[in-house]
Known about the structure:
By secondary structure, chain A is α/β, with parallel strands linked by helices. Chain A has helices at residues 9-13, 66-71, 103-109, 124-134, 140-153, 157-160, 173-185, 203-216, 229-235, 253-258, 263-269, and strands at residues 26-37, 40-51, 55-59, 84-91, 94-95, 110-113, 191-195, 221-225, 238-243, 246-252.
Amino acid sequence: MAAPVVKSRAGAAGAGARPDTGPAPVKIAFHDMGFSYPGRRALAGVTLEVPEKRVTAIIGPSGCGKSTLIKSINRIAEIGTEVKVEGRVLLDGRDLYAHGTDLVDLRRRVGMVFQKPNPFPKSIYENVAFGPRLHGGDRRADLDGVVERSLRQAALWDEVSDRLNTPALELSGGQQQRLCIARVLAVDPEVILMDEPCSALDPISTARIEELIEQLRERYTVVIVTHNMQQAARVSDRTAFLLNGALVEVGETERIFTTPADRRTEDYITGRFG
Amino acid sequence: MRRAVIEHLALGLLRGMTMMILLATVLLLGSIAVGGARVITWEFLAGEPTEGMTRGGIFPAIFGTICITLLMIVMALPLGVCAAIYMTEYSGNTRTARLIRASVNNLAGVPSIVFGLFGVGFFILFIGRSIDAVRGGGLLFGQPAMLWAAATLAVLVLPVIIVSTAEALTAVPRSHREASFALGATRWQTVSRVVLPQAKAGILTGSILSISRGAGETAPILFTGCAYFLPRLPVVHLPVPLTGLSIPMINPLDQFMELSYHIFIMATQSTDAAVTRPIQYGTTLVLVGLTVLLNLSAIWLRARYRRRPVTR
């Protein structure tokens, strides 16, 4: 199978769906960034720019450092372990790893959706209200509004509006993942990181999440890690290919999937390894 | 064919062993219940020992047991839970943290008599006498008292509380902590809003079980505060100014009688152990009853939280 796996979504949807594919300002930038866990180097020499209000997909085989790369943006890769970071990671031009970075503020600006849906064992309402409550938005009237807006944005409102006080764990897997997205949206972030958000979901739920990502890109910068190359092609504007902790190639998704510049990228996207 | 026989034998062996445990429990509790039930009357529960402790009741011992258990809970629970939270949520997995964890685990295996001697040496002779020296005016803190007995018991149950609390905390999925941090929660917000609500039931259950273990201990209080015979209750009456009234309060500097110690002296120190045997049975039944009550409350708590695992 030498041809690209699928047509790029950008091509399939037609130019009308992408009025703004011109150059966008850089939201996140990695400069020669390296990342090591105790006894294991996860990333080395990564230089990558993530444009604002675009969807950037990170692809690559298991263990290539994709997860570490996005978890380094909200600095949760370092939780519970000691890490060494080289180079720089910039958010709006400010170094995230500079001394004195406010992690609470950083994580409020950079939300994250995890591989497996991980709602808290609380009610649907309390899950969405969790973030706003952390940051001091405790007024009930305000909170109700935030919860409704977030659930609508996550395309979950119509399914749960009549049972906000029921346990979140009674929702289906796909609904739980949309709830997790709503929970992130409720703190009004600028960037949303997604670590293989559909890997535990069935195809229909996956399709709904992908539709959702399409809408999110209008307001948020999205970085999505995926194992699924069709998904990368469908949802992203730019794609970065990572291999063994190094960035092999990055570019417009359509170009990466039709005329990859690097032989290894071509081998990977055509399914020769990985 | 041979495999079927072995299967049969294995099943028989396992079932037999389990039945042995059941039998031992039934025999033990049964003999206590039968022997004790005859003695238990209102006078026995509410009265005090009379006639050289060969007759009368055990109320001072019941009262003393409840007092030191409460005092022990007040001392051990906050300390143990806080230490466990620090160890699991804050200290990470450094060499020091592992060392602390290992020493706590080992502390749980130290014989209780060692704690008793530690209580005398550390609490009474070191802390108590030091307070007295600073305070001046004779011996007050530097002698056996309920305060020190409860403190010694607290040290005894502390490692058990820490271990069971740490277990309950680590049972909370890592993904929930990650989600909380990723939303911008601080460590304390994550602990108080995500981890503790989920671990609460496990912490309470584990703590009650370890407390009920401590409540029946004799060795730690042997030298630290319990009295052979002390018919008056360890209570002081604090006068309320201007009213002429007074509030009765437990006096932690007094000595006290205690159930397990009472059984011990009845069985070994009595001039005629045969005469006091009914009292021994009765006292044992009351002690076992109190412990069972504590354990039942732990079971009830666990069942309650299991039925409603999701709370707002």
